[in-house]
Design brief:
Elements (H helix, E strand, L loop, with lengths): L28 H6 L8 H8 L5 H13 L1 H8 L3 H18 L1 H4 L3 H18 L8 H13 L3 H13 L9 H22 L5 H21 L1 H6 L7 H6 L4 H5 L5 H22 L16 H13 L16 H11 L3
Organism: Acinonyx jubatus (Cheetah)
Function: Involved in the assembly of mitochondrial NADH:ubiquinone oxidoreductase complex (complex I) at early stages. May play a role in the biogenesis of complex I subunit MT-ND1.
Subcellular location: Mitochondrion inner membrane
């Protein structure tokens, strides 16, 4: 049986909302959470979350995010009102790049789309954005918060390199990909929140790496259905596991040990991120709400003994909005 505790180097795995049993939230918290704009998931809710004066481009970004990155959508709803539209634009930009790989049949077409976004970012910083909804909203965010161009370009460059259908050679290569995509996204979110702090940046780096690792794990069944495996080869070889084992949804101990090792690394990054908790400005905490969803997945995969193909891992967490609201109320990450 695969190890029952994630990460021998990081002690027993304690998942779930941090401190939830120690302090009771106020009565009626669930009712208040349900009243958050957009949690119902309807088009009317999207319009409400945008505000009565919201533009069509703003609503486009919100709807794109709600459909393609629901967890990111929920996290963005809990940001301060003056940061929300910029966060939606930033995450919609990330969605546009992320879906290129699965929406093209030839790498050449994917490269052309990446080049479009690279030129779009150049045009945004020249105050000449193309008439594309995400580009227009991203331009507004850049103007409003003076966002660093380098982070946007890093996301594009890394997504472009990832167009090749090649597995990661080792966990470090996966972490590097996560740093240049997910962590860059968090650095920009911190800028939107007006946070300039070294400890917050360190936490963002580790949370982004954890996000990238968990995303890779969560996508494994989907990739397997398309005859693709992207899990780090070095860890697979260490346990004598082949790509074919994942394509056949083999549930042997050595296959689960591969997943255990990868999940342990994600958990370790979360632990490192939280080691900066007392030094990170409270203003930065909303940027890190995604740790709730990360912990939820790591807890579930532990409960099924690291069976990456277990049906329960594909089920939507209906309590996620409440969990995010509680975490936001507690001002923790």
């Amino acid at each position: 049986m695969a190890a029952s505790v994630l990460g021998s180097t990081c002690g027993p795995l304690r998942l779930g909302v941090t401190g939830l049993c120690r302090r009771r939230p106020p009565r009626g918290l669930w009712a208040r959470a349900r009243r958050l704009p957009g949690l119902a998931g309807s088009g009317r809710s999207v319009a409400a979350a945008s505000g009565s004066g919201a533009s069509g481009t703003d609503r486009y970004c919100m709807e794109l995010l709600r459909k393609r990155d629901y967890e990111g959508y929920l996290c963005s709803l809990l940001l301060p009102a003056d940061s929300r539209s910029s966060a939606f634009a930033l995450r919609a930009f990330n969605v546009e790049l992320a879906q290129v790989k699965d929406s093209v049949s030839e790498k050449t077409i994917g490269l052309m789309r990446m080049e479009f976004w690279r030129k779009t970012v150049d045009d945004i910083y020249s105050d000449n954005p193309p008439q594309q909804p995400v580009a227009i909203e991203l331009w507004k965010a850049v103007k409003r918060h003076n966002l660093t161009k380098r982070w946007l370009m890093k996301i594009i460059d890394e997504r472009e390199k990832n167009l090749d259908d090649k597995p990661y050679r080792n966990i470090q290569e996966l972490e590097n990909y996560a740093e240049n995509t997910q962590s860059s996204l968090l650095y920009l979110t911190l800028e939107i929140l007006g946070v300039k702090d070294l400890h917050a940046d360190h936490a963002a780096s580790h949370i982004g790496k954890a996000q990238g690792i968990v995303t890779c794990l969560r996508a494994t069944p989907y990739h397997g259905s398309r005859r693709r495996v992207f899990l780090p080869m070095e860890i697979c070889m260490l346990h004598g596991v082949s790509q074919e084992d994942f394509l056949r949804q083999n549930q042997a101990k050595n296959v689960r040990d591969v997943i255990y090792d990868i999940a342990s690394q994600a958990h370790l990054h979360l632990k490192h991120a939280r080691s900066f908790h007392k030094s990170v400005p409270v203003k930065a905490f909303p940027a890190f709400l995604q740790t709730v969803a990360l912990e939820d997945y790591l807890k579930k995969i532990q409960q099924v003994d690291f069976d990456i193909f277990h049906p329960s891992l594909q089920q939507k967490n209906t309590l996620l909005p409440l969990s995010l609201y509680v975490q936001s109320w507690r001002k923790r990450y």
